[in-house]
Every structure is written in structure tokens, then in C-alpha cells.
Amino acid sequence: MPRNWKEEVVFTAIMAGLMVFVMTAYNVTMAQGFSNGLILAILSGYPLGLLVAIILDMLVVGPIAKGLAFKYIINDYMRKRVVLIGITISVLMVLGMVTCMSLFGIAVEGELSGAHVLATYGHTWIFNLIVALPLQLLIVGPIARAVLGKMQQATANREETAITEDED
């Protein structure tokens, strides 16, 4: 888990950057199939999706997911196993982000009007969840946590070196 603002920003950038890129590619491919303009469509949809995802992650979904996790789900057993805390928060984050970003996606595509908007949203939500949850738990989450761990280890090493130098 990030311990300060710098770590939070790096962790969120990696997590959101990878998740949004893969999910944008998935959704664009599902919408238009493999075509000549696929790469351009993915790259053109990515920046706005990333911006929205980072804002939602840091200001809405992240605080709610962490609040729910620590208030209602995480118990003493889980506190002794940090990986369970990470998985719990990851699952809640995916549920929240899929809920919000699916709505964002159908809004951007102009599909928020019409008689079938709830069916479109439900279809989009479930298809996004099917991809986003394993993507987060098996690929993106471990990558982001590994980078965060290396950052935290480097910080700990610098602090240890500074303490040793001060003692000399």
C-alpha cells in the first residue's frame, strides 16, 4: 500500500495507466472489431479515459473502496496478511471503477439515450467486469505492487544510508 503522496501518485499512474489502456483496447475492439482504424481509435480514446479514471480513482472510488474495506470487510485475520487487504481493496476498486467507467464509456459513445440504455449499461458492465477483474488481480495489480515495493525498498535503503552516515 502506498505510504505517502508520491507513492500514491506513482501507484495510481501505473494502475490506471495499464488498466485504462487494456480496457480501452478491449472496448474499442468489441465495438468496432479488428479494423484499419483500431489502433488510432484506441490511442485517441485513451487520454480522456485515463484522465477520468485517475480523477475517479483518487477522488471518488478509491476513498469509498478503502473506507468500505476497512470499516466493513477487513478483520483482524486479514490485517495480519497484507496481501488479503490488497486483494480486498482491488476487488472493490474494480467494482467501483467498472461501474463508473462503463457509464463513461457508453456516454462517450452516445448510447445514453434510447429505450435500451439499461440493457446497454448492464451488458457493458458485465463484459467489462469479466475482463477487468482478472486483469487487475493477475497482471496489473502485481505489476503496480512490484514497482511500489521497489520504490519503498529504495526509500528505505536511502534512509538507512542517511542514518548510517549521520552516525559516522
From TrEMBL:
Transmembrane domains' residue ranges: 9-26, 38-61, 82-105, 125-148
Keywords: Membrane, Transmembrane, Transmembrane helix
One Pfam family from the record: DUF2798
Name under which the protein is recorded: DUF2798 domain-containing protein
